[in-house]
Amino acid sequence: MRSTRKNWSHLPHDLLLQIAKRLGLIDLLRFRVVCKDFLHASSTATGENEVESLPWFLAYGRRSRECTVISYTRGSTSTKIHTLNLPQLQGGAICLGSNQGWLLVFQRGSMFFFCPFSKAKIDLPDFPCTKLKTYHTAAFSCPPWSQDCIVIVITRIDNGHIGLYLLNGGYNNNNNNNWISYKFNLEKSQLHNIEGGAYYYGETFYFSTAVARD
Question: What is the mean pLDDT of residues 116-127?
Fold first, then answer.
């Protein structure tokens, strides 16, 4: 007798995508490892349904393509650890900031947005600096697909100056939108360090710093 069991990998990709878009981050990761068809069909899903309500932590090494995702369960103090294969972050990638499931990444002189769950990548216009100094931080106002997304990067230029670089929304419309650069006099003794505490709230960007003390 012929088996009546259906092969889940034969489901239409449009249907699989609609399912994937309704999944949270961790369930999306599980969905993607079922088979190649599930992985391909969910390429544009981001798991953003739970991004705002459930915190997650991404740890990666600059020389390894394996990344660790630590997730927290709602209403519980327990954590779950998952491993992702992300060659996009291999080779000197520096994560400058994150917002709603997207990372702002600097790598080999280029700046781009990257979603570790869908592996979607959005390139940004050429950044004014080919290298980042020891002290740097960044933030962006909303997900990169929004026309209102504003990106701000702060980095130390030398011992006497810091640079602020601003990119307004609309950069993904090929409208020749470029970075706007500002240079400020600030001795290293006045600002000992720039910590990675940049964030956007309301209509204002905030940056936490460690001020040197005698």
Answer: 84
